[in-house]
């Protein structure tokens, strides 16, 4: 448990450069008061007081004599710690002679090694930083806590190996030997000569370009004498002068933790990307280490070699590493990569705002692409890609994130490149609100008829599937490449537990999944479920992909007897994946829909001897299933799903009303409101749709005179209750929502968003061009 009395909590000020634990003050006062250091450590935090007469520590102010301490009594932490720190800050408030004398006395009593010029500086910030940094240096206080409380790399890696490297022992002899070698090396944090080199790159750090180049100190041989240094001075200056050009060539440093072995400059290594699978010929590349440096804040110190258990920076991997990677000298056929989810859990669904970038001059397209690649490396929550139309797309999490990324592109990564930014492209999802009627999908040759229907998945289940999508993707990819064997049994059990816990609340859906679960989509790990036919004995789960997906939830052994034709089953799954990737409303992905195969009828009598004029059966099934699923969505009262942002706002009571007005105008709602204890500041948490978030921060600051500042992060998907396909039918509805004007179109928000998205994608939109065709034109001109 975290507690100052346990020594695992430090009090610090990054601005003034100091940090301390209660142990620091316990050591100071132990001799002065004749108390044990251990006793003071336990007593300096909590409701403890010192009886000045008896010099004994008591628990609770009620146990003190009335005149033992001035009233009100101060706890030991206040009297021993905070009062002493406050005296230093009090002495720097003014620069008069009395304050200077106080500073001098403090420096003398505490025996601080501070120059008189520094603690006597007229600027109080300079003086307090010099005194506090000398008395309670932040580096020493924090590093002492790290050394005492955190396990060493050897112990830590042994405890974390199951998560860092979740692989079980292979069956073949060669694979078992490679597995045992890697396991022992990482488990023991082995840095001996023959141990394999294995390291993980968690992020790429961009070197600053603001003119203040970091100092890269080059190590000098120990035998180099002072005279030799003087003789080599001209050469050193030449190297220093050429350093900036090298710095510009290598713009990123790989932040690396070495798990086993060692790394040094000019080492030839393999770089394995997050999607690399053991034995694969894709997802890896060769690279040469240009330089190994120790990261020391803004400074970097070049070193000859870094061994296991250390954190360092590796240069020369700009073109080999995008964001995260595994580094090793083990060849691909023997390499078992680190867990792919170590690089972060962001998915495409998190990046709900996209813009297209277009350079003013086509000749600058390559420079803009390079700048976007650098931005992708520097920011873990950015994705950049090129669409089939050739557009350069930048995907981010929100408006403020987009502004920051565009500034970085213009000022750092693509400096001097002029480019145009399109209107933000907002991602939506499509779903259904009720269970629709069954729809029959019949192939063109009439051989196969498939009965399907769609039903909504409960919100809690859909959100849990959305959260677990990265884990499901990892386990499915692993099972696919390891012949249906998942090498992370503990991870599989955890995921099963979390999913089954949510699914069991929906008993009907859970019972159907036990015997009928076939797949999930889109891309096999989304929020939509495909259920097979209810006749489990007639159509057992035969397929490799289907059995893998069901095996993630249940212990299942496929039955091979009387199995369904693989062509038919694969076609149904493929049609399901196509449909969930692009729905019928506006070609956006489907969210939270369960598609059930009710029956499959096969008529072999229509099959002739010659080739089928309608093409392969698999293609016929895919197209017919896709069309049928789209029809059943449209008949199940489709709804649009939009992304919401969680907005955290701090404001005062005076501007609370203005803040509520801004939120309500943006279709937002407040979910939590608390007043900060000890202050008149309200902490408000609200939900605002992404479509309404553009310009929200500026309007909020303007309406509250700058007293309210929002922080926005992605929250979840939420269904819009309005029917995008609704049109008035009864006489009363026609009177209220007349079709002769634009009242209906202006008030149906879901329809507006659907039409806007369809128009952007070039899809057909029914627009009412003429409102009143029989109304007489007014030809009069006003003079």
From TrEMBL:
<feature type="region of interest" description="Disordered">
    <location>
        <begin position="208"/>
        <end position="244"/>
    </location>
</feature>
<feature type="compositionally biased region" description="Basic and acidic residues">
    <location>
        <begin position="220"/>
        <end position="229"/>
    </location>
</feature>
<dbReference type="GO" id="GO:1990904">
    <property type="term" value="C:ribonucleoprotein complex"/>
</dbReference>
<dbReference type="Pfam" id="PF00679">
    <property type="entry name" value="EFG_C"/>
</dbReference>
<dbReference type="GO" id="GO:0043022">
    <property type="term" value="F:ribosome binding"/>
</dbReference>
<keyword id="KW-0378">Hydrolase</keyword>
<dbReference type="Pfam" id="PF14492">
    <property type="entry name" value="EFG_III"/>
</dbReference>
<dbReference type="GO" id="GO:0005525">
    <property type="term" value="F:GTP binding"/>
</dbReference>
<protein>
    <recommendedName>
        <fullName>Elongation factor-like 1</fullName>
    </recommendedName>
</protein>
<feature type="domain" description="Elongation factor EFG">
    <location>
        <begin position="639"/>
        <end position="728"/>
    </location>
</feature>
<dbReference type="InterPro" id="IPR014721">
    <property type="entry name" value="Ribsml_uS5_D2-typ_fold_subgr"/>
</dbReference>
<keyword id="KW-0342">GTP-binding</keyword>
<dbReference type="Pfam" id="PF22042">
    <property type="entry name" value="EF-G_D2"/>
</dbReference>
<dbReference type="InterPro" id="IPR053905">
    <property type="entry name" value="EF-G-like_DII"/>
</dbReference>
<dbReference type="GO" id="GO:0005829">
    <property type="term" value="C:cytosol"/>
</dbReference>
<dbReference type="InterPro" id="IPR000640">
    <property type="entry name" value="EFG_V-like"/>
</dbReference>
<dbReference type="InterPro" id="IPR009000">
    <property type="entry name" value="Transl_B-barrel_sf"/>
</dbReference>
<dbReference type="InterPro" id="IPR020568">
    <property type="entry name" value="Ribosomal_Su5_D2-typ_SF"/>
</dbReference>
<keyword id="KW-0547">Nucleotide-binding</keyword>
<keyword id="KW-0690">Ribosome biogenesis</keyword>
<dbReference type="GO" id="GO:0003924">
    <property type="term" value="F:GTPase activity"/>
</dbReference>
<dbReference type="InterPro" id="IPR035647">
    <property type="entry name" value="EFG_III/V"/>
</dbReference>
<dbReference type="GO" id="GO:0042256">
    <property type="term" value="P:cytosolic ribosome assembly"/>
</dbReference>
<dbReference type="InterPro" id="IPR041095">
    <property type="entry name" value="EFG_II"/>
</dbReference>
<dbReference type="InterPro" id="IPR027417">
    <property type="entry name" value="P-loop_NTPase"/>
</dbReference>
């Amino acid at each position: 448990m975290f507690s100052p009395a346990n020594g695992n909590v430090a009090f610090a000020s990054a601005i003034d450069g100091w940090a301390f634990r209660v142990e620091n003050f316990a050591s100071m006062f132990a001799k002065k008061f004749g108390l044990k250091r251990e006793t003071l450590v336990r007593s300096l935090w909590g409701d403890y007081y010192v009886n000045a007469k008896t010099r004994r520590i008591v628990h609770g102010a009620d146990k003190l004599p009335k005149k033992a301490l001035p009233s009100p009594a101060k706890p030991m932490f206040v009297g021993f710690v905070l009062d002493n720190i406050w005296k230093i800050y009090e002495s720097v408030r003014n620069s008069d002679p009395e304050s200077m004398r106080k500073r001098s006395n403090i420096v003398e009593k505490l025996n601080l090694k501070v120059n008189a010029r520094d603690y006597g500086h007229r600027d109080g910030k300079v003086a307090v930083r010099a005194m506090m940094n000398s008395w309670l240096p932040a580096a020493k206080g924090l590093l002492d806590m790290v050394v005492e409380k955190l396990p060493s790399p050897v112990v830590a890696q042994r405890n974390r190996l199951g998560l860092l490297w979740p692989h079980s022992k292979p069956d073949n002899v060669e694979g078992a030997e490679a597995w045992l070698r890697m396991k022992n090396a990482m488990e023991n944090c082995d840095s001996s000569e023959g141990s394999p080199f294995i390291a993980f790159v968690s992020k790429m750090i961009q070197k600053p370009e603001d003119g203040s180049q970091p100092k890269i100190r080059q190590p000098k041989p120990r035998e180099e004498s002072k005279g030799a240094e003087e003789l080599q001075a001209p050469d050193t200056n030449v190297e220093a002068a050429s350093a900036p050009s090298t710095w510009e060539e290598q713009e990123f440093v790989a932040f690396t933790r070495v798990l086993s072995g060692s790394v040094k400059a000019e080492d030839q290594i393999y770089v394995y990307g997050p999607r690399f699978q053991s034995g694969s010929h894709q997802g890896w590349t060769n690279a040469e280490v240009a330089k190994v440096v120790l990261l020391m804040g803004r400074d970097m110190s070049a070193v000859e070699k870094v061994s296991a258990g250390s954190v360092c920076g590796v240069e020369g991997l700009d073109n080999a590493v995008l964001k995260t990677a595994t580094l090793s000298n083990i060849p691909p056929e023997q390499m078992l990569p680190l867990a792919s989810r170590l690089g972060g859990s962001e998915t495409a669904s998190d990046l709900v705002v996209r813009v297209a970038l277009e350079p003013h001059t086509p000749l600058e397209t390559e420079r803009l692409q390079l700048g976007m690649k650098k931005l992708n490396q520097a920011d873990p929550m950015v994705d950049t890609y090129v669409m089939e139309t050739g557009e350069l797309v930048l995907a981010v999490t929100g408006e403020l994130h987009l502004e920051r990324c565009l500034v970085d592109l213009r000022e750092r990564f693509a400096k001097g490149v002029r480019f145009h930014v399109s209107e933000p492209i907002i991602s939506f999802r499509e779903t259904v609100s009720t269970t629709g009627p069954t729809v029959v999908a019949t192939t063109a040759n009439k051989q196969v008829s498939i009965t399907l229907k769609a039903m909504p998945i409960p919100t809690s289940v859909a959100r849990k599937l959305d959260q677990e999508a990265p884990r499901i993707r990892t386990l499915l990819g692993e099972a696919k490449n390891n012949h249906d064997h998942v090498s992370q049994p503990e991870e599989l059990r955890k995921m099963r537990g979390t999913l089954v816990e949510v699914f069991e609340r929906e008993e009907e859906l859970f019972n159907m999944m036990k015997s009928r679960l076939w797949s999930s989509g889109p891309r096999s790990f989304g929020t939509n479920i495909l259920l097979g036919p209810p006749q489990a004995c007639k159509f057992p789960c035969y397929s490799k992909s289907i059995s893998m997906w069901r095996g993630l939830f249940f212990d299942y052994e496929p039955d091979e007897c009387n199995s369904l034709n693989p062509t038919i089953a694969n076609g149904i799954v493929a049609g399901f994946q196509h449909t969930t990737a692009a729905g019928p409303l506006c070609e956006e992905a489907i969210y939270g829909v369960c598609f059930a195969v009710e029956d499959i009828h096969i008529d072999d009598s229509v099959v002739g001897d010659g080739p089928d004029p309608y093409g392969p059966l698999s293609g016929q099934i895919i197209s017919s299933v896709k069309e049928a699923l789209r029809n059943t969505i449209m008949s199940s009262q489709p709804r649009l799903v939009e992304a919401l942002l969680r907005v955290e706002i701090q404001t005062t009571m005076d501007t609370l009303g203005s803040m509520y007005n801004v939120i309500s105008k943006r279709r937002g709602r407040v979910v939590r409101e608390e007043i900060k204890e000890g202050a008149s500041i309200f902490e408000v948490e609200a939900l605002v749709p992404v479509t309404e978030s553009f310009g929200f921060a500026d309007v909020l600051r303007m309406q509250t005179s700058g007293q309210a500042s929002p922080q926005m992060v992605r929250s979840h998907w939420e269904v819009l209750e309005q029917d995008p396909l609704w049109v008035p039918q009864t006489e009363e509805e026609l009177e209220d929502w007349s079709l002769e004007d634009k009242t209906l179109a202006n008030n149906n928000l879901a329809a507006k968003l659907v039409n806007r998205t369809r128009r952007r994608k070039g899809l057909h939109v029914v627009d009412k061009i003429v409102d009143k065709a029989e109304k007489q034109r007014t030809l009069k001109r006003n003079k």
